[in-house]
Amino acid sequence: MNRKFCVAPMMAKTDSQYRYLARQLTNKAVLFTEMIHTNAILRGNQSKFLDYSEEQSPLVLQLGGNEPEALAKVCLLSNEIDYDEINLNLGCPSPKVKNGNFGAALMAHPELVKDCLSAMTESSNKTISVKIRLGINDENIFESLDKFVSIIAETGVNVFYVHARKAILGKLSPKDNREIPPLNYERVFQLKKDFKDLEIIANGGIKDIIEGKDLFSDLDGIMIGREAYSNPRILGKIDSTFYKSNDMKKPLKEITENMFDYFDTLKSKSEIKRGLIHMHGLYSGLKDARRIRVLLSNFNYFKKAKMEIISLLDNQYSKVA
Ligand SMILES: Cc1cc2nc3c(=O)[nH]c(=O)nc-3n(C[C@H](O)[C@H](O)[C@H](O)COP(=O)(O)O)c2cc1C
User: Fold this and answer.
1) Does the structure show a pLDDT above 70 at 67?
2) Ligand 1 pocket test: which of 60, 178, 180, 222 has the largest number of ligand atoms within 8 Å of its C-beta?
């Protein structure tokens, strides 16, 4: 799988409806599911886990968890589903996740992570990867990061998505943990120098795809989260910029029509509502963006909204102007 450009996993955002939208703009970008905890899957709440569709490939399933046996069981189940990769979340700082001792809290327990990853690689028919932070709390990331990576790389896992800041656990909210600990791209470059055989994908604070491509050209790829959600039109340039392939260049009108056609195929009101919300960013910066957002926000009106939005768009292209 070519990971030159990845859209970061985001809870309540990178669900199936968002991924459908993203695939209107790029064939090639690697997409991720939201994090799904092993317990949810094993206790039978499998809707997100099973929500795979071939058109969303390349698609990575992201798991949360800290029990080797449970992770192995989920990997076995996912052998029947065509996800392209399974990623273990070692970067989430939320208090709930910290109390459950998974996500970023696991960076304090490299041996446990190693057991988790070994169990996953032994039971899965897919590539296993990790998403990490530079470290946690008051760790000295110049020492601790290489130590952590070298221990877990012993499992053969060699794909690392690195959010280029520390996580401060128990003191900052998840939102603050994405903004307050300073970005340190230099540390990510050093990690690649120290572990040349590992695939290192940089994440955190990247907004401009061209600048990102240039800045991280010594690495194996970049991953963008918030900007790809709030301004999904940037995805319209990914295929030519990163993959030497033609951009899809669908007019926004066509993308909008495709989304509404897709809503007709969805089973539940909540899925349609989520899809409508994900569309908000699609029009950001356009003259009628405000009006369109109002139209998309009223679920009871959404069928009529379609015609009005389409008439407002008047063949504007999916590319960022
Ligand atoms: C709303 C939201 C939810 C997130 N959920 C997840 C998640 O489920 N798993 C994960 O590994 N990271 C999650 N993240 C972190 C992102 O994947 C990414 O690492 C972070 O936003 C930094 O990248 P950015 O600056 O490009 O947004 C989330 C971020 C946001 C904003």
Assistant:
1) yes
2) 178
